[in-house]
Amino acid sequence: MDRQRRRILQWSLAAQATALAAALPGWPAHAHEPTNGSTPMPNARDGRHDFDFYHGRWQVKNRRLSQRLAGSDEWIEFDAIDECKPVLGGLGSIDRYTTDWGGGIVGMALRLYRPQTRQWHVYWASDRDGVLEPPLVGAFHDGVGVFEGREAHEGRLLPSRAVWSQITPTSLRWEQALSPDEGKTWETNWVMHMTRLA
Questions:
Q1: Distance from C-alpha of 131 to C-alpha of 3, rounded to nearest angstrom
Q2: Do 165 and 172 meet the contact criterion of CB atoms below 8 Å apart?
Q3: Into which CATH architecture does domain 2-197 fall?
Q4: Where are the domains of the chain?
């Protein structure tokens, strides 16, 4: 039964991501097409090393919207440190995110690459509730990583998207957005600029 539930969840997430991909100009639709879990996506490259650039320690400049999907234009700024290490022989990575903001937060991102589908699954948890959230699923294309899924917001599961861009050996940008209308419009609610630490 667990295996069947996992298969249904994988297909559901992939179908959601396919619908959301239409909102990304220039992003190939096939990048998020559902697979049977064992067959690589058509034209997909092996991206198991696509997050290697992030191994190490980073200074994080955060800009977070004070209220999401409420028409707010007030941004909260704070600093954090993120440290990323490879796991599973390079088939994944894990972060430790720490900040003093909001009374202090310790978070964790877990990224796992599935060679069968050639997609990354990115999970998040923090010491606020200890819950491993449903993954954002996606891949890199032309140096930009787009990862999509669903996130709980005020009792609804809304389309969620994270984008990694402007990647250099010493810096990068990450941003997160939610859609209140199934991908027709998006609101960016969190932006991070990372700078590599020695």
A1: 21
A2: yes
A3: Beta Barrel (2.40)
A4: 2-197
- CB-CB contact of 172 with 194 (8 Å): yes
Which of the pair, 195 or 26, is modelled with greater confidence? 195
Residues 6 or more apart whose Cβ sits within 8 Å of residue 74: 65, 66, 67
Partners of residue 113 on adjacent β-strands:
120
How many whole angstroms separate alpha carbon 58 and alpha carbon 171? 9
Rg (C-alpha) for the chain, rounded Å, is 16
Check: CB of residue 20 under 8 Å from CB of residue 179: yes
Beta-bridge mates of residue 173: 165, 193
Name the nearest CA neighbour of 195 among 69, 54, 19, 86. Answer: 54
Whether residue 19 has pLDDT greater than 70: no
Does residue 79 carry a pLDDT above 50?
A: yes
**For the whole model, what pTM was predicted?**
0.78
- Tell me the average pLDDT of the chain: 85
> Cα–Cα distances in Å, from 85 out to 94, 141, 165?
6, 23, 20
